[in-house]
Amino acid sequence: MAKSNIKLHFLGTGTSQGIPIIGSDHPVCLSTNPKDKRLRSSLLLEKDGKIITIDSGPDFRQQMLRYNAQRLDGIIYTHEHNDHVLGLDDIRPLVFKSGEDLNVFGLKRVLNELHHRFPYMFTENKYPGVPTVIENVIQNKKFEVAGFEIEPIKILHGALPILGYLIDGKIAYLTDVKTIPDESIEKLKGIEVLIISALRLQNEHFSHILLDEAIRYSDLIGAKCTYFTHISHYLGFHDEVDSSLPDNKHLAFDTLEVVI
Question: How do the residues of the chain divide into helix, strand and coil, expressed in percent and rounded to 5?
Fold first, then answer.
């Protein structure tokens, strides 16, 4: 039996401040090209009528409205930084619509941080109208979410151990990358689609790789196609940078859809 196609929808492709940045007069922030407008990074995956997302940043409500999401079957978290988790409360209407608690997945450390950011969601006597979730601690093994097979991939965000994900053995999502251990690269060799962060063109960052480093990782992995995400305004104008990239490598942009 043939495997179902997966639709990838880039909810957001920007860094923690998004593009444009508040108060900035940088040329990329002033661009009128919609592809230069970037909300905080998140990916939506749809298969067989089921929808999951990787992360739920501060722009989650706006992103899900833009997508016209009618359901949500789970959220998988890469790590606990604000630009990846602060939209969790915006699951409320979809939880109420489904009548079911939402499954959320993350490292134990990450789920503990959700308790600190959203304490009212995890108390015994919840305020009426609070969304409810089912916590799932990610171990070092594959797991299933709404028909998707998910394999956690260990990466480093600076010195912080975080997770990327391999979905159905063919699509990898690696954001906030600084280092990809050799064992993780081996797990990803020859995948169909790699989605990887690429902060900017120059000036080394303590916790993020630059575009040339992201290209090098793509080549090491040997992905058939690569999309760069988690992009800052310092990377440059989308169309200019995208046209300069090697074959089968592309800058992602908000609302981009890819079917695999």
Answer: 25, 30, 45
